[in-house]
Amino acid sequence: MSLLKRTHLVAAALAPFLALAPGSPALAQSDPATAPQSGPQSGLDAAQPEPPAPAEAPAAQSESPAPAAAASAPPAETVLVAGSLEPEQAYRVETFNAPGPLGAEKLADIPHSVMVVPSRLLENVQARSVKEALKYVPLAQFQEQQGSEVLRPATRGMQGSNYQNTRQDGMTIFVTGANPLESLEQIEVLSGLPAAIYGPANPAGMFNFVTKRPTAEPLAELDLGYSSASIFTGHADLGGKVDAAGILSYRLNLVDSRGTSYVSGSDLDRKLASLAVDVHPWSETVLTFNLTSNHLVQKGYPGWFTYGQAIKLPAAPDPTRVGYGQTYAGVDLKNQSLSGRLLQNLGPNWVLVVGALNQGVDRNINTPVNNLTNNSGSYTSSLANGFAPRFAITSDIAYLNGTFRTGAVGHDLTLGTTGFRAVTRAVLNTPTAASVLLGTTTLANPKAFPEPAAGLPDVLHQYDSSVAKQQGINLSDTMALTSQWSVKLAVSQDWMETRNFAKTGLQTTTYNKNGLSPMPSLIFKPRENLTTYVTWASSLQQGDIATSGSNLNTALAPYRSKQIEVGAKAALTGLDATVAVFRLTRPFAHLDTSDNVFKVAGEQLNKGLEATLTGQLSEQLTVFSGVTLLDSTLESTGVAATNGKQYVGIPKIKSNILLEYAMPKAPGVVCSLDWQFTGRRPANDSNSTWAPSTSVVDLGTRYTTRVLGKDSTLRLAVNNVADLHYWSTIGPSNIIGSNTSNMTAHLGAPRTVAASVAVRF
């Protein structure tokens, strides 16, 4: 079925646009009582005098600024819920969190497809990991690497990077380690090509993890949770002013989670300590600091499966069976970061942001790898080895955001720089295949194998295998030509350098390139609450290092990905609706056997449609939903079996619909239903084997009340109600189908129960 024929599947998501003709009632200006609210503010308004909050109101974020227009808007009515203020138009977010490359633009005015997951949604669905959070972002995909906590998020079917596609408070971080949610205010997702805004990166979008800020009023919340089979979690969220004048304020998140998961004999132990401090030395200045330490040990969970091009991917087995994983094997992940930012008002229309971040990720990965050897379900199990045991990065940002006029033209200008120095370490003593071999068995008869005689592979002895540096200058100017027409011009000039090293410490290869990444947009607003746009982008990313051929270990020139996107965004009464169509291409390289040269030899072409709908469908019914229709093909591969085929693991349709219903006759009770649908996915490069489509349904309820005079919320959820056995992600082999490595497949979680009680003291 063609992509065009599938568009009927998103009729519900696009329905608001059917009424967008001039004069339509749907385009009436939003009622102030239901207008979208901003997320946690990130400018300097908190430094200004504020009227005291009502005694019963939850604490507000202290680090601050919102757009000037928002400051004069009437406050929305709110409903008190432990852990968050929930506007009646729940889960609508007006702006990105912090000043930076996108300035203070409203989401509705940004000429890109974006989606924001606020902390109140993460709390209400009891999400504990990035994998659990991203299922509510149907515009995003992710590729699991060595387990559920080691993954690369991406958009539009393009592979993400270890670090170039992820940020914390706007600064680059490594993502392939454990990333806690309890310290986050929201997750911001920008689809497609990010280079003109954020610097060179894979064309997989940008994911920004926004940390919680200190509160202006005292905050003390305790959340006690349980999930199948016996994992107990305690989370304390504390905040407030240190001194009466509010010069110093803090936010402290502490988490202790441990127990047995859905597999007998498994073990989870997770500890988080996250401290955020804001200092207001002067009325126009805010200094922000973050210190985070997260440690996760996960053993006994199912391992991941690998298989060759000739093997048919079998139906996913029951993940609760003992033997697909081993009680002594898994991951031990430490993620520590320290960051600081200066936010300085330079008059009524200008803000300066300067920041730096240092992060270290230590990884002891010994996940079982179950290699399928035939179509009867036989597999050989070994311990994973050879993965980078440590990542370290120092990243920086500096942005000047401001507005001004030149004659009749208004300008929203951003000028800045962003970059990083990233170090990847490798294992010095690589184990032999025999030393990590566990045994052989079948899917029908998984076995608990004894630990290898030599013990787990050594990851303590390491060496620096690569050092990558990147720094760029970013310029963006949104020029308002008339009340309806504007042009946005964004461009970055970036310098990239990568050095690779042998175990002896000798440098083996070097790479030093630079280039421009432009991204112009044309924006038309036929009405105040409707924005349409066309954006073209040419995005730079680092070229591959030749892995074979006469130019072995030689760096290729930087790759250019190109994209055209046409979209529309409408702020309806109580609802935000968006739709975008896009065409995105990127090059890929392989060994050309005709001349024995590793070179660019084809491209991946992804085209599709994204749509979202967020807000209130009625007084009681809230929706947070979206869909991606995607046609992802490989072109000019030079291999007949793979040319024109669909990219491995990428479905033609992916959607998620979260509905929440506030019971009118039971005040404080909200029932929820989440439906995640994933179309069938090709399981190898030649598309000769497929994973079937999946529908995963979660049901939940929560009750907000007062217990012993304290605001409390009780939550209960059953995830994967039907106990569906499915492959959560399927990873590609060599992108051109040259059969140089195996595909990978990870099991989705079974039916689980989650319960929690949150109390605000």
Uncertain spans: 1-89, 735-740
The class by helix and strand makeup works out as mainly beta
Please tell me what the overall shape is.
Answer: globular
Q: What name is given to the CATH topology?
A: Maltoporin, Chain A
Quickly count the helices: 5
Mean pLDDT: 85
- The tally of structural domains comes to 1
Q: CATH-wise, what's the superfamily?
A: TonB-dependent receptor, beta-barrel domain
Assigned CATH architecture: Beta Barrel
Terminus-to-terminus distance: 56 Å
Which labels suit this protein?
52% strand; Maltoporin, Chain A; disordered N terminus; mainly beta; 761 residues; 22-stranded antiparallel barrel; 5 helices; 3% helix; 39 strands
What does this structure look like?
The chain is built from five helices and 39 strands. By secondary structure, the protein is mainly β. The chain has one domain (219-760): TonB-dependent receptor, beta-barrel domain (Maltoporin, Chain A), CATH 2.40.170.20. It has a 22-stranded antiparallel barrel. The chain has a six-stranded mixed sheet with strand order 22-19-18-15-38-37, with no helix packed on it. Strands 3-8-9-6-7 form a five-stranded mixed sheet. β27 and β28 form a beta hairpin. The protein is globular, with a radius of gyration of 25 Å.
